Amino acid sequence: MGTVTLGVSIAVPEPYGSLLQERRAGFGDPAAHGIPTHVTLVPPTEVAAERLPQIEAHLARVAAAGDPFAMRLAGTGTFRPLSPVVYVRLAEGVSECTRLQKLLRDEAGPLVRELQFPYHPHVTVAHGIADEAMDRAFEELAGFEAAWTCRSFGLYEQGADDVWRRLHAYRFGGGVPAPGVPAQGSPVDAPAPTKA
User: Fold this and answer.
1) How would you class 53 by CB atoms within 10 Å of its CB: exposed for 0-12, middle for 13-18, buried for 19 or more?
2) If pLDDT is split at 50, 70 and 90, which confidence band does 46 have?
3) Higher pLDDT, 6 or 176
4) Which of 26, 88, 118, 165 has the most other CB atoms within 10 Å of its CB?
5) Can you give the pLDDT at residue 167?
6) For the stretch 159-179, what's the b/e string if a residue is b when 16 or more beta carbons lie within 10 angstroms of its beta carbon?
7) End-to-end distance of the chain based on CA atoms, in angstroms?
8) In this predicted model, what pLDDT tens digit does every residue of 126-167 receive, in sequence order?
9) Phi, psi at residue 40, to the nearest 5°?
10) What single string gives the DSSP state of each residue in the chain?
11) For residues 119 and 191, what is the distance between their CA atoms, to the nearest angstrom?
12) From CA 195, how far away is CA 23, in angstroms rounded?
């Protein structure tokens, strides 16, 4: 059956997802339109395709045991010089994302893997591009802010064209996969209306 490259992440909802994706493209990052705007929970992981049902069942169990939580983005950060990345910071939701990724990569589960760097939830807005463009991303998005209630995470597969497509969304408290491959910022992660 071969192998597939999977990742698990939290989609950044609209209008923020598309806005950050367009900004990433504007900084000259060629990967911008192949990667929906997200917070990584499990980084790209190559697995045997036959293990997909076991992985999906594991994700459903983790989601079923979870609860929605507040997410807030504010300001920028960078991993330079260790890694050529500029990102938007998580100001709220860090502990919940950290807990989730540990559960997803549990040693007893089908997605166990070592991380190249310590886990640090963030939203990448520039990766591996010229230093001047990285500086611009860092400066121009320094005032960026967004907030929403995270109600699910998604399982993504990287295609032969290097585009990441969502296979399923897993809602907290239910864990039931929602089939289909929605566009950036699908309704499943849409922010709840705020009171005036």
Assistant:
1) exposed
2) very high
3) 6
4) 88
5) 96
6) eeeeebebbbbbbbeebebbe
7) 53
8) 999 999 999 999 999 999 999 999 999 999 999 999 999 999
9) -70, 135
10) --EEEEEEEEEPPTTHHHHHHHHHHHTT-TTGGGS-SEEEEEEEEEEEGGGHHHHHHHHHHHHHT---EEEEEEEEEE-TTTSSEEEEEEEESHHHHHHHHHHHT-TTSTT----SS----EEEEEES--HHHHHHHHHHTTT-EEEEEE-EEEEEEE-TTS-EEEEEEEETTT--EEES-PPSS-GGGPPPPPP-
11) 25
12) 28
Task: Tell how strand 69-78 and strand 164-171 pair up.
Answer: unpaired
One-letter amino acid of 158: Q
Tokens found for residue 110: 């089908």
| Cβ-based neighbours of 166, under 8 Å, separated by 6 or more | 11, 36, 154, 155, 156, 181, 182, 186
Rounded Cα gap, residues 86 and 105, in angstroms: 25
Read off the tokens for 105: 């990569």
Sign of CA dihedral 45, 93, 84, 156: positive
Q: Which residues contact 81 (CB under 8 A, 6 or more apart)?
A: none
How many Cβ atoms are within 10 Å of 34's Cβ, its own excluded?
15
Which among 123, 121, 97 has a CA at the least distance from the CA of 17? 123
- What share of the chain has pLDDT > 70, as a percent? 88
pLDDT for the residue 180:
40
CB neighbourhood size of 131 (10 A): 9
